[in-house]
Input
Amino acid sequence: MNTLIQVKHLSFSYLTRTGSFTALKDLSFEINKTEFVCIIGPSGCGKTTLLNCLAGLLKPTQGEFYLNGQTAVVFQDPLLLPWRNVLTNITYGLEIQKIDPQEIAKRAKKILSTLKLADFAHFYPHQLSGGMKQRVNLGRALICNPDILLLDEPLSHLDPQTREQMQLEILRIFDKEKKTFIFVTHLIEEAIFLADRLIILGKSPGTIREVIKINFKRPRDLTLKHNRKFQNMEKLVNDILTSEGADEENP
Ligand SMILES: Nc1ncnc2c1ncn2[C@@H]1O[C@H](COP(=O)(O)OP(=O)(O)OP(=O)(O)O)[C@@H](O)[C@H]1O
Ligand SMILES: [Mg+2]
Output
């Protein structure tokens, strides 16, 4: 079956001191196997809440979703363990699951090579650049061999050049690993560059404003960003985000 995730009328409310706050209201969408979906929308529209629901960290208040596979989450802050090196930060999750050490070593070798971290396996977090830390963060998720990778603004702390390099890395890993990526970002350009489909959320409460298919062929490289069709797509998404009823904090 091609549909990996099916979300039906999902709503989520946080309990607050004065009652409850509806962060997501009546979201319905599907995500296919090996699809790259970017979720974009203004700050506070419920992107992290949605990802946390899909990861099973929050239980929807209403509605349901069906998810056929294992998920792994890549958070915005790498939060690496400072006393562990690159290799053992990546293997930590499997160690606590008591996976066979030989199997761990085999998977770690593959991940280090995929992420171009083999030469840095014994470096400690304080010796790494921001981009490298984020690659280790990605490695911790990939080593669990999930079907679905949930990424919450993983590149937002990087400088523009490193961010662009990491976008290419993410695309390379996506093309290689044949997994399903759900990637939250604030940047329209980044979303279009990475995704097969955009889910555009609006705010108060968080609802789907529009879903847009992105058809640029893969593999993609940075020249795509200068393509007229790419720039027209950026304008279209920007218009949706800033159109009447959208939030003023839009990117
Ligand atoms: N624990 C909580 N209790 C109450 N309200 C919360 C809680 N966590 C988040 N919210 C509210 O829910 C809404 C959605 O938050 P969420 O973090 O999902 O937004 P977001 O789209 O990820 O924002 P950003 O782009 O800034 O990361 C916001 O209005 C936020 O204030
Ligand atoms: Mg968020």
User: Anything to note?
Assistant: The chain has a mean pLDDT of 93.
